[in-house]
From TrEMBL, chains A, B:
One Pfam assignment: Glycos_transf_3
Protein known as: thymidine phosphorylase
Source organism per UniProt: Flagellimonas pelagia
All residue ranges annotated as the Pyrimidine nucleoside phosphorylase C-terminal domain in the record: 430-497
Protein origin, superkingdom: Bacteria
InterPro entries per UniProt: Glycosyl_Trfase_fam3, Glycosyl_Trfase_fam3_N_dom, Glycosyl_Trfase_fam3_N_dom_sf, Nuc_phospho_transferase, PYNP-like_C_sf, PYNP_C, Pyrmidine_PPase_CS, Thym_Pase_Put
Catalytic activity reported: thymidine + phosphate = 2-deoxy-alpha-D-ribose 1-phosphate + thymine
Biological process according to GO: pyrimidine nucleobase metabolic process; pyrimidine nucleoside metabolic process
Keyword vocabulary terms for this entry: Glycosyltransferase, Transferase
Enzyme Commission number(s) from the entry: 2.4.2.4
GO CC terms, sorted: cytosol
HAMAP family named among the record's database cross-references: Thymid_phosp_2 (MF_00703)
SMART domains hit by this protein: PYNP_C
A GO MF label: thymidine phosphorylase activity
Length: 500, 500
């Protein structure tokens, strides 16, 4: 039991495991033998000034020597190590907050302190993926009441940075995802900022969709701005549309969302805490939330939507946010374009009041911007939509949009992709159904969002009368290979668009 | 999208991750780029004749070349690969059974087919630790009814090998763990086999305790026998006490139990399915289950114990096992010894009817063996304990015990450890409490079960009158260092034994 056997020399192995802290040590290293460490043992790894918790993977090859230690990239970054640093390893003291997770597994109600401890330890990286998955599962399936969702949301807000805009009213909007092409955000920002409200909008890149708002806006302007740059843009123009990835708002959410993705669940409690914690941490005071409902959207029934609306508004109240949730039609994609460049073109056409601008996108934008104007109290009830429409038609929204783009560093016109194929109807009839998930998948296979100009331009909408050989949509890609790849998928699936 | 980019050359990295299949590929390998693989993506990895599913860890150092691929040891073993084998990687088709896990997360009742698909995929290695943790959590907290526990048990039985002894009656016993020194199994085997019943007992090594039955028996005889050797011993002597580790009975349980350990939960449904599936797969027909109840035992209240008893017996019926569960006192350790050698000495003293044999161990053994004799129908009701006692007192059980040991390859006398310290009472009074968990931890720190002769020999039991400086227990170790390590723990905890 001599102390020095617990000190090992760091070697860079360069293993990227997402967020999970993994420590690599040899099976024949002295500390493994003397401490009884084995694979998956949770171990504390320390430098002089800081320490992390990591799961052990045991090495029995020469990628490490017995006196060396490796770390996954996430762990190395958190510990800020350099090759040949000496690291001290020891048994992990029990993680107290796991007793709360166990209590939740056994159906007990947790209070704010419990959620706060759990979320703190998650942000510290003390939970393995096994623990994270258990926490998410224990909270899913309607096992959290409004109090608990509120407490979880507060704990998530407290876990990260919080922005302060020194404004009485700061507005925001959010869409409960799942609808291809539903790119209302930049348009709403342009309208409400043109009207004089403050809307410092941060958006995400695509996680599983063919384009996130940040991907789309990157076609037209810079979105990866520093905190200082964002502040300057918002102070100057009243709004922005930037990528939120570096903001460190609600960092626990970034960890949990990856586990939810691996499980392919999006439990109500976590969803609400995720959305509202990000909004509150970003300094918002008034938030409109769009809940599209449809058979192939994320929210599939009116009953689920009503419940979600109710919970969002009540939890919002509990954490000091004015929230209005709007249930919208989620039966089909919005606009014509699916994919960053094609969606950017839709946005510009709406802003410029072009004849062929997508009407459905425009209507949604006017609805959401109108609700936001009313919620802020700056426009009286029943006058929101009218006001939003005026700002759009007048060209002021377009002006504001260009001004924000320029404040963010550039305005670039979108350019169509070089490769394309037109997909035509094999039969005539009425367009009965569009599968949101499959059309999104098709756009992704054509290269979106990595290839910005890849994607789909829809020519039809639900209930349109379609002639045989009439144009249904155009597939765009940046290489012939990607175009073929998407076509193969299309040929294997005859239920992407249903005509009867 | 050329196919050959999906073929990579296997390199041995020697990374042991327990059961989890992990695949290592370079961030700049062509297939990662073209297929959009990223860390934690679930990937199918195939050789010509077989394939596995693994989670990706992305490598950005020279431990791999861009055209090479690595696997965790578990994955390499399942795929049976050798260095330079060419492996084909592809996107994973969706794992259908995860939809059942999601249904369970959302509180739906699952049927046999659903559990069967889940368990099959778990045994195949298709579930990541994230999925396994979600499944265990979703099944915990009283979320399974008797039908579901029965269906899960049946699915776990079907997932592995099943032994057949060609006997009408095959008896077994099991203890719902948590009580140090409770080493009744070998004694029960000796008694019922001496009486003429068949009891092919497989036991586990210690998971978190200072000794498993297999560790203890290994002091006295060989326990790592092949399936053929076990069959020979049982045919010759009617019983055995061997290690069950290589038997491949209920293999899903081996995977799930490691995740439960990481979560430190042992949910009722999984516990019942685990115990009964192992018994049924081992070919047992009549099983007595010991449920010790105590404040620091695994089962802490009579209410929990009654419920568990009820469920064990009912699920047993559903899967065709005659089960009798017995609730026993779990307030303190059983016998004197804690640790393999010290427990082996207790066993021999009971068999030899020694004056100083631990009475509590003897009473438990007579109770359990008696219940088993009655359950089998070979001894009439109310006569079991009397019969068991006769077999023990007569020396026939000791004779049978030695015969089984010899059939298993050797009988070795236990030898005490070279280093020891006596722990004495600091005050006089009545012994009010023994902390089962802490005394077990102390025995482990002294070196048990790796050091066979390490451990604790208790000199006192609950409610004993203790004089100041009277002997409480003796700590044994195989090195002075281990003895010191245990003593340090003892000195930091003054509530291992409470005298008032």
């Amino acid at each position: 039991m001599e102390q020095h056997s617990n000190i090992l020399k760091y070697k860079h192995l360069g293993i990227y495991t997402q967020n999970e802290n993994v420590v690599y040590m040899r099976d024949d290293c002295l500390v493994c033998i003397s401490e009884g460490f084995e694979a998956l043992t949770r171990i504390r790894v320390a430098k002089v000034t800081r320490s992390i918790v990591a799961s052990l993977n045991v090495i029995n090859s020469d990628i490490l020597l017995p006196n060396e230690i490796g770390l996954s990239d996430a762990a190395a970054k958190k510990l800020n190590v350099s090759p040949n640093d000496m690291l001290y390893v020891s048994h992990l003291e029990p993680i107290e907050s796991l007793s709360h997770v166990r209590a939740k597994i056994y159906n007990q109600k947790l209070n704010y302190d419990a959620y706060n401890q759990i979320i703190k330890d998650i942000v510290e990286g003390d939970y393995s993926n096994i623990h994270l998955s258990a926490f998410i599962t224990a909270c899913a399936g309607d096992r959290m009441d409004i109090d608990e969702i509120s407490d979880l949301t507060k704990a998530m807000i407290a876990s990260g940075k919080q922005l302060n805009w020194n404004k009485e009213i700061v507005v925001d909007k959010h869409c409960i995802g799942g609808l291809p092409g539903n790119r209302t955000t930049p348009l709403v920002v342009a309208i409400v900022a043109a009207y004089g409200l403050t809307m410092p909008k941060t958006s995400s890149r695509a996680i599983t969709s063919p384009a996130g708002t940040a991907d789309t806006m990157e076609v037209l302007t810079n979105v990866a701005l520093s905190a200082d740059e964002i502040e300057n843009v918002v102070n100057q123009e009243g709004g922005c549309f930037v990528w939120g990835g570096t903001a460190q708002l609600s960092p626990a959410d970034d960890v949990l969302i990856k586990i939810e993705k691996a499980l392919d669940i999006d439990s109500e409690g976590q969803l609400i805490a995720s959305v509202l914690s990000k909004k509150a941490a970003a300094g918002s005071t008034h938030v409109v939330i769009d809940i599209p409902v449809g058979e192939t959207a994320k929210v599939r029934s009116m009953e689920m939507a009503e419940k979600l609306k109710n919970h969002l508004e009540n939890v919002g109240k509990a954490v000091g946010l004015k929230v209005k949730a709007i249930i919208t039609d989620g039966s089909q994609p919005v606009g014509y374009g699916i994919g960053p460049t094609l969606e950017a073109i839709d946005i510009l056409n709406v802003l410029k009041n072009e004849e062929d601008a997508p009407k459905d996108l425009k209507e949604r934008v006017v609805l959401l911007a109108g609700e936001l104007l009313e919620l802020s109290g700056k426009v009286e009830k029943e006058k929101g939509m009218e006001t939003a429409k005026e700002v759009l038609i007048s060209g002021k929204a377009y002006e504001k949009f260009l001004a924000i783009c320029k404040a963010q560093g550039r305005f670039t016109q979108p350019v169509l992709a070089p490769f394309k194929t037109e997909i035509r109807a094999e039969t005539s009839g009425i367009l009965k159904r569009i599968d949101n998930r499959k059309i999104a998948k098709l756009a992704k296979l054509s290269g979106a969002p990595q290839s910005k100009s890849a994607g789909i331009s829809l020519n039809v909408h639900l209930n349109d009368k379609v002639e045989k050989d009439g144009l249904l949509y155009t597939l765009f890609a940046e290489s012939q290979g990607e175009l073929n790849y998407a076509l193969e998928y299309k040929n294997r699936h005859n239920d992407i668009i249903t005509i009867k």
